[in-house]
Amino acid sequence: MEALLEIDNIEVVYNKAVQVLRGLSLRVPEGAIVALLGSNGAGKSTTLKSVSGLLTLEDGEVTAGEVRFRGQDVKGIPPEKLVRNGLFHVMEGRRVFEDLTVEENLIAATYALSGRKPSLSDSYELVYNYFPRLKERRKQLAGYLSGGEQQMLALGRALIAQPDLIMLDEPSLGLAPLLVEEIFTIVARINREQGTAILLVEQNAAVSLAIASYGYIMENGKIVIDGPTEKLTANEDVQEFYLGVGGAEGETRSYRDIKHYKRRKRWLS
Ligand SMILES: Nc1ncnc2c1ncn2[C@@H]1O[C@H](COP(=O)(O)OP(=O)(O)OP(=O)(O)O)[C@@H](O)[C@H]1O
Ligand SMILES: [Mg+2]
Fold first, then answer.
1. Quick one: which of 19, 28, 178, 259 is 20 to 30 A from 2 by CA?
2. Nearest residue CA, atom 17 of ligand 1?
3. How far is CA 182 from the centre of its chain?
4. pTM to 2 decimal places
């Protein structure tokens, strides 16, 4: 069956010189939460940018393969048109307008939506229902929000557009564990209650796999392992290198160094 988002064997090159994606494929079915995991520099953000059309702003190009949203090739479709079609990309690093208030940030997110624009007051309520803290702070400048609140606002900006697919780039980055849990719980609720599909890009495998139904792990520009969450979490390599099972507290990060080689060897052999 055709999935909502289909990335089919894409290759991406920056500056006509540096190849970053090397035949990457993944699918996000309608209404699903799919996790895309991988360490620094694996190409996760590049993958999202090649879907949303932001790649061209960075002199990047999809040189092979195809990305389809609702069966339609996204090539050449401007990013704002994709937003109108129901695809919203929440970029890495909580991009909000710091000099605008919370509410103005939400309004700004609806500008791209002419034709599809939901009633504004209903949409505010929708956002504030999931993020009561944003309601309390709606007249405050976004620049004064805490990191967690800014991440909530970035999510709120996606939600107000009422998309069918939200691509979330590392929402846990730099946030305390409790806050990460709070935000991921809300993401799962949005998915469940609004039917919004989520493509969740993360380095934090444990929290992502806790809410996703399917996961992909990428390394060096391509997927090295994928499967339904239960299967992935039962996989020994995934446990050892991404979930830190069996290791001492805080050892999860060691997959970046010594174990890196061992893992690659096992997966690729
Ligand atoms: N605009 C660019 N021009 C040239 N190279 C780039 C550009 N953006 C990213 N890269 C390179 O592409 C590779 C993948 O980067 P990308 O940001 O997609 O990784 P990532 O998996 O999102 O990493 P992180 O977890 O650190 O966010 C890196 O080697 C990076 O240096
Ligand atoms: Mg990234």
1. 19
2. 45
3. 17
4. 0.89
